[in-house]
Known about the structure:
By secondary structure, the chain is α/β, with parallel strands linked by helices. It is 40% helix and 18% strand.
Amino acid sequence: MNPILMNNTILFVNDDAGSATQAMRATLTVLGHFSVLQANTVEQALALLQHKSPDLVMLDINMPGLRCLEACRAMREISDLHIIVTSVSNAERDKVLALDAGADDYVTKPYSIQELLARIRAALRRGQKAEPELEPFVSGDLEVDFASRRASLAGRRVHLTPKEHDLLRILISHADRPVPHRKLLQLVWGRDYGDELDYLHTFIYQLRRKIEPEPCRPTYLLNEPHVGYYFAASVRDCGNPFRNRMHSVRGGRETEASRRFPQTLAS
C-alpha cells in the first residue's frame, strides 16, 4: 500500500445504516486504510463536504429518499472531488445519467472489493499526481489556462469538472493527433481502465456542450472513426508542439455525422 494514499478520508453517502453499510465502512477502514465519513441525507453530505474536506466521495445511487442524482449535482457544484457512484443497475442509460450529473466513475453491484479499492486508489493517485505545466492555450474563441484550471469561450467563463479538464488537457497536448479510446481512458482514469467507452462518449458530449460554439457541429473535439478522439487546433507558433493546420476534411466528416445524429451522445 502506497503510504501517500493511506489515511485519506472517504465520504460514504448512503441512507442505509444497516449491516451492509457497516461492513463497507469496516472494509474501507481495515483493507483500504481510509478514514470514513458517513452521510445519510443530502444535507449531511453537503455539510461534511464543506466542513470535513474528504478526499473522495462514494455515492450509492439506489437510495430512494436521497435524490441521488440531485445530490451528485449539488456536490459537484461546490467541489472538484472525485465522485464514485455505486449502483445495482448496469444499464448504459443509468451510467450516462450518473456521469452527466457529475460523477467521475460508476461501479456496478455486486462488485469485487478489490476492484472498488483499485478504483479508489487510482482516483486518489491521479488527484495527487503533479502534471507537467502547459502554456495557456488559445484557439479561436476558446481559451484554456491549465495552471488555474479555467476555460472560457468567447470571453464567457466555462466551468469544467476535474475529469473534463483532464480529458481536455490530454487531447490538447496531443493536438491534431487522434488519441485511441483505450489510451484516453488510461491517461484520464488510470491504468485499470480501457473498456469504458460510455465514459468517453459522455464526457466528450459534455465538453462539446461547454466549449463548442455549436455542439452539434463540433470543430474542436472530433472523432476519428474506430480509433479515438482528437482536438483540432489552429495555434500560432509559440514554442509549443501543436501543429498548425486546417481540418476541413476530417472536421467536415464529423460535422456531417453530427447533422445526421444531433440527439446522440458523442460518437
